[in-house]
Amino acid sequence: MDKLASCFVQHGAPSQSFKPYAPQRSTTQISPGRSRSVPVVRCAAAHAATVTAPKVTSVDVANVGSGSFDFERYLSATAKAVHDALDAALQGLRCPESLSESMRYSVLAGGKRLRPALAIAACELVGGPAAAATPVACAVEMIHTSSLIHDDMPCMDNDALRRGRPSNHVAFGEPTALLAGDALLALAFEHVARGCAAAGVPADRALRAVVELGSAAGVGGVAAGQVADMEGEGSAPVGLAALEYIHVHKTARLVEAAAASGAVVGGGGDAEVEHVRRYAHFLGLLLQVVDDVLDVTGTSEQLGKTAGKDAAAGKATYPRLLGLEGARAYAGELLAKAEAELDGFDAARAAPLRHLARFVAYRQH
User: What is the tally of structural domains in the chain?
Assistant: First the structure.
């Protein structure tokens, strides 16, 4: 734990420092001419009806039913488009068949595709076309999948189940799984460079996206968070600050990079990109808090992965440090903070991101 504490003190978070239980509504105006009126709409009735919701401080959950935006249809269409693009990107790879099959096994296994949807929605938020963000969306999913393959391996979390079926290393063996994760990480950056050029994205925007994604995958994000997570196991109790460091890096930073990169390739200005970044930072932490709650309250069948594994490994989690109700209350604060960052944008363009935040807050798996 001394190493983890030292890392936290020396390096801190990759962007702004956000403290739990201190919600503060943004007052920064993006553009005086933009409307701040945003309809409150339902993510998905099934989720609100069957899931114990976090305590929300600024959104009246009882009224989350008005409006006409069909988020389920939007998410389904985006997921299919990204899946098809990923399928195409992973065809005809010049490598041993076992490596190609291992890569495709995990990337095309399904999942909610939240990070790709976030990249595309952020691009559209600032007025860019979805096609400009599709290479970024695919790259984000490749990076995310790479991290999951490595995370499941015996040297990390040693989890045999992922998305309802055997983890990659169980299906293909540890050496092939390790190399599949490495190959996906490398392919992600190649895909951004080639795909952005083909979509007509200016080179300077594509380069900024590469920098964002590289930082999020490496020492500024997933790699740093994973090491801190492992070093915190079985040592002195991990406090909230150290836990936040782990999840800002391991989870939130890639979510943040997906959104920021989408806004960048879409042509967003600096102020717009910063609001999108902050929205995604809170969304990434919300994703982790809800994951921690579901690890306690869900089953392996519901989650598609081993339930209760964090508690069994003695890991620090938000329910463990805050209690189950405290974790749910914190999720509500993060949801309110994320939505506040969208207030200065056009309401119709912001609707997918607003729904996405609520979908994450009320999901069951």
Answer: 1
- The pLDDT tens digits for 301-335 are 655 556 566 666 667 889 989 999 999 999 999 99
CATH number, domain containing residue 61: 1.10.600.10
Instruction: In whole angstroms, give the CA distance from residue 323 to residue 288.
Output: 15
Q: Which of 62-71, 124-133, 239-248 has the highest mean pLDDT?
A: 124-133
Asked if 278 contacts 16 with a C-beta cutoff of 8 angstroms, the reply is yes
Identify whether the C-beta of residue 116 lies closer than 8 Å to the C-beta of residue 137: yes
Largest CA distance in the chain: 57
Q: Which domain holds residue 303?
A: 2-11+19-24+41-362
Beta strands 161-162 and 165-166 are antiparallel
In a domain, 32, yes or no: no
pTM: predicted TM-score of the whole model, two decimal places: 0.79
Query: CA-CA distance, 313 to 297, in Å (whole number)?
Result: 16
Q: Which run of H or of E encompasses 165?
A: strand 165-166
Residue 30 lies in a domain: no
Of residues 66 and 157, more confidently modeled: 157
The Cα 318–Cα 168 span in angstroms is 28
Sign of CA dihedral 216, 218, 219, 223: positive
